[in-house]
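Anyone have C-alpha cells for Signal transduction histidine-protein kinase/phosphatase DegS? Sequence:
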Amino acid sequence: MDFQRLDPNSLDVILDRTMESINSSKSKLFEIGELSHDECQKVNNQLQLLKEELETVHRLRQERLQMDRVARAELVKISKNFQDYKEPEIRNAYEKASEAQIKLSVSMEKETRLKDQISDLEQRISSLQNTSDKAESFMSQISTVLSYLGGELRQYGEVIEDARRKQEYGLKIIEAQEEERKRLSREIHDGPAQVLANVLLRSQLIERIYEKKGKDEAFKEIKDMKSLIEDALKEVRRLIYDLRPMALDDLGLVPTLLKYLNKVDDRSEATIYFDYDEGIQRLHVRLEAAIFRLVQEAVQNALKHAEATEISVDLKLDGDKIVVTIQDNGIGFDVNVRKDQSFGLIGMKERVGLLNGTIQVQSTPNKGTYILIRIPIHEQEGV
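Reply: yep, here.
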C-alpha cells in the first residue's frame, strides 16, 4: 500500500466509524460480563442457603434413620415373641414403624432434591464464570485494538514512515498497558473485590448465626469481617502505591527512592545500596516521576532477569544535569543481541529521549550491568 496517497480526512472517518462499531461491541460485552458477574453472585447466595438447608436436612435424616432402626428392632422383637404382646401394643408398634419409615423417606427425598438443586446451581455458576471470563478476555483484546486505532494509525503524512518503524514497539507498549490493566483488574477482583463480596455474604448470614448460635458466635463473625476489611484496605493501599507513590508528590524524589529501595531490600534477597547528593532539591514533577520510574525499571530488571544479589543506585548532580547510575552484579547480557527482556530497556531509552537526556548501557554475560543516565534539569522547567 502507498501510504503517501492516503487522504488523512478519509482515514479519520474510517477510523472513527470503525472505533464506534468496536466500542459498541465492547459496551455489549461489558454488559454481558457485568450481568454474568451479578447473576453469579446471586446464584452463589442461593447456593449458600441451599447448602445450609441441606446440612439441616441431613441431620434430620440421620435422626429419623435412627428412629426407623429402633422401630424396626421393636417389630423384630414382637415377631419373635408375638404371644407375649397384646393387640394394641402390636398395632402401636406397627404404626410407629410405618410413621418412622414415611418420615425417613420424606427426608431422603428432600435431601436428594437439594443435592440435585445444588449440583444445578454449581453448574450454572461455572457457566456464568466462563461467560464472564470470556467477556473479559474479549474486552482486553478489543481495548488493544482500540488503543492501536486511536493512537498509532492516526499518524500519517510525513510521519508515516517513522510510525511504521516504531509499530512493533508501539504495539508492545499497548499490550503492556493492557496487561497492566488486566493485572490490576485481576488483583482488585481476586483481592479487595473478593473480600468485600465475602463480607457482604457473611453480613447477610449474621442474623441467622445470631438466631441459631447466639450472640457470641455472631460477634465472632463480625470480628472476622473486620479483619477481612482491614486486609482489603491494606491491599487497596498497596495497589495505589504501585500505580504512583504519593510520597513522590509530598516528599520529593530522594525520600521516595529511599523508601522504595528500602522496601525492595527488605522484600528481596538482594542487597540494595543507595547514594545521593545532599544538595539535591525538589525537581520538576515530570522529571521526578521519570527518574523514579527509570530506577524502578532498572532495579526490577536486575532482580527479575539478571538475578542480581547486589544493586547500587547513585543519584548525583553534575552542573545543570542530574546523573543516575544503576549497577548490579547479575548475569549480564549481550547488548548487541535483542531479547524479549530488552523491551523494558527500550522503554527506558524512549523515556530518557523524551527528556532530552542520554542513556548508556554496558553489560557483559556473567559480569553484571551498568546503566548511566544523564538528564538536563532546566529543560524540564515550565513543561
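Confidence is low (pLDDT under 50) at residues 1-6.
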